[in-house]
Amino acid sequence: MDLNTDLVQELLGALPHEGGVLTDPDLLQSYEHDEADLVPYGTPAVVVRPRTTGQVSAVLRAATRHRIPVIPQGARSGLAGGANAIEGAIVLSLTGMNEIIDIDAANRIAVVQPGVVNAQLRRAVAAEGLYYPPDPGSWEQSTIGGNVSTDAGGMCCVKYGVTSDHVIGLEVVLASGEVLNCGRRTAKGVAGYDLTSLFVGSEGTLGVITEITVKLRPAPEPALTLVAVFDTLAAAGAAVSAVVSSGMQPSMLEVIDRVTLTAIEAYRPMDLPTAAAALLVAAVDSGGRAPDDLARIAAMCRSAQASDVYVASDEAEADSLLAARRLAHPALEHFAAQLFPGGGGIMVDDVAVPRTRLVELIEGIEFISAEHGVVVATVGHAGDGNLHPIIVIDRSDPVNLAQGQKVFDAIMSLGLSLGGTSTGEHGVGLLKRDWLAREIGPTGLKAHRSIKTALDPDNILNPGKVF
Amino acid sequence: MDLNTDLVQELLGALPHEGGVLTDPDLLQSYEHDEADLVPYGTPAVVVRPRTTGQVSAVLRAATRHRIPVIPQGARSGLAGGANAIEGAIVLSLTGMNEIIDIDAANRIAVVQPGVVNAQLRRAVAAEGLYYPPDPGSWEQSTIGGNVSTDAGGMCCVKYGVTSDHVIGLEVVLASGEVLNCGRRTAKGVAGYDLTSLFVGSEGTLGVITEITVKLRPAPEPALTLVAVFDTLAAAGAAVSAVVSSGMQPSMLEVIDRVTLTAIEAYRPMDLPTAAAALLVAAVDSGGRAPDDLARIAAMCRSAQASDVYVASDEAEADSLLAARRLAHPALEHFAAQLFPGGGGIMVDDVAVPRTRLVELIEGIEFISAEHGVVVATVGHAGDGNLHPIIVIDRSDPVNLAQGQKVFDAIMSLGLSLGGTSTGEHGVGLLKRDWLAREIGPTGLKAHRSIKTALDPDNILNPGKVF
């Protein structure tokens, strides 16, 4: 307790602004965990909300002196427990550092603080005719800092890549409190090790990101969108394979299965074809070539036995299709609560396989679901081979929970056996530490540990996460 | 000597094939250095040419046991001395590991050994309708392993990015001899630290790359090409700024100055407009939109006072323009030899600035050249803000050499002052160690050192390079 009193005094000295240091137990509770279900968390001793890089340095120096873990947090919308607090730790919330420092339209870059919300950046650059592609499902809540720390993806990735494809420079506060600048503002640059990429996706275990330089693209051409309806998931998968093998570059290629459709329709009725096994939502933003591209995708869907292919007549209609896709998580939570009134919940998985193995993954998930008698909704970024199987569980029933965990493990195992990875875009956090170890093997783990030790010798930064 | 005899015996045991271990002094000499001028090198004690990853492991285990430095080498076409041998070291030449292991057309990836030549990979994937964009000037000689180690660029980068934008997985032999697999074969994947990006561009200081997985693109549409002729370099720079600020995505945007034009014309006469201050060569591969895009670029060049704009009538003509651009290095070497028969040579520099600062960089280089009375030819990837000022020197004249070094330093200093980086694509090697230190500062250097020590605790891998 004395230690903590000392620490809090020190933190109050460094962050004297109102709300800079929180110790009220009710407030502390609200910083305990992100949106991952069924992973452990504790109550922090203190929450700090710095406004400057200097304050972040001060917090890390104090933490190092007291040997207290620091858990960096953004909007806590993560899905792997990467931002979960440890009992007695310092939570370092970066949502107050939310300034867009610079939008340099001529050089097509933006410099932002980590607490800037994804949608805020997207809108600000759109006003300059520019485009920041990464669009995780949480884009209205999640912060760029969190997106960078987890290397977040979204629906854009099939054409535009994930967050790491857009970050070119970082300011990072190291465990020692020293401020490291890495990367550049130039279009090209290869000076020294690519530390920028090392910090992207490191989930707060190597340093605290306090400034981010991203590259921007010209605003894309307006997208044309279609929906194809399939009687089997495998047929939808076959259509995806045809599209991705064709060399075309759709700007979106998403799959939504029957369980998800039913849940969305129940949550917000919009005449979705709930009798279908799956919908594909595809978009192209290839300008003058777009109508041809869309027609080719439509033809490929029909060849793959789509029972209906429907082209959105305008952007408004396309947006409403996207809105449906974006409702998958809340709708499935609602569905779970109705199915299991005592404790319904969802485990959101994230697995990516080589695109040509998508059908095998989809069929395997169906088999696993049936075998264990557990409802699994499948939705995701089909064009990337990246699916989010969502396992519907009853938290109040230990038998059901155990089955849910078995299903989760079986899907992870299937993904790896298909040459895939245990996380396409959500990160490892606490949820997938064992799977990371299995995926990268002992030599990979050893390399991870040695780098972690090199940059954070006292292991104060988000300890226990990732590996 | 005993130590070396022991070592050689051990290496012969591990690499028993013909030519696996070279100790003939004449042969050793030919492995001493890459193509950088005026940087130090030594004679290796032994050159090993492994054929398998297991043999690379054996070499590194032996080197670690004997505490002898290992210098990985590809085609030695690098321009920063990164592959230069150290006296008494083991040179590890990877040109014998030159197999294309897999081209997976449906998933658009290729898996190759490091000794595969860039052009060999490009042609192999082109046969499948695919495209591997990175195209360094040395593409007919340089290896993918070397390209990855230096994060090589080329003329494609303005649209398609550098080597690191295309590498998704690596097999790396660590200093301990352990084999690390990092990255993935999937379109997306964020499992653990991005070790792949850490090794890309690390110039052989962190591990020996023995297998590379790259992503491929669909074959691009045929390019349309134009040449614009300018009376001042600044006018050419203004045209570049207009094009890059417009949001268009040319597939090439190169500048060639008068000195370079004159040198190329003297080396291989092709009616280049040697009275011009600069040529811009621009290409677009945007399919149906390409003629419009090219017309817009032409209009921008005319607005920037181009004295002539010439559209290539077909791909053959465009190819001959590119061939001229690719002759810059040998032509300038020839020019230097004629200018200074006693010891003419060139120092190839590489500096990148934010694209909007290009005119300032170009004008600054002209000023520096005039101020020091040293001929500087400027050629490069204007669309990326990445120039290669080529300093023409007389190796036999210490005064001229000293002036050349001053010009080199002044250009580096100018680049950094414009918010640029000391190397856009050639790497640091030995040539730019001091400039890297200046660019990344003491905290950056410390982070580099700690990572180097974590992965190579005995400092046997290409010691002394980069920092």
UniProtKB/TrEMBL annotation, chains A, B:
This is FAD-binding protein. Residues 40-219 form the FAD-binding PCMH-type domain. InterPro entries: FAD-bd_oxidored_4_C, FAD-bd_PCMH, FAD-bd_PCMH-like_sf, FAD-bd_PCMH_sub2, FAD-linked_Oxase-like_C, FAD-linked_OxidoTrans_Type4, Oxid_FAD_bind_N, Vanillyl_alc_oxidase_C-sub2. Its cofactor is FAD. The keyword Zinc does not apply. Signal peptide: none annotated. Pfam families: FAD-oxidase_C (PF02913), FAD_binding_4 (PF01565). SUPFAM superfamilies: FAD-binding/transporter-associated domain-like, FAD-linked oxidases, C-terminal domain. Gene3D superfamilies: 3.30.465.10, 3.30.70.2740, Vanillyl-alcohol Oxidase, Chain A, domain 4. Keywords: FAD, Flavoprotein, Oxidoreductase.
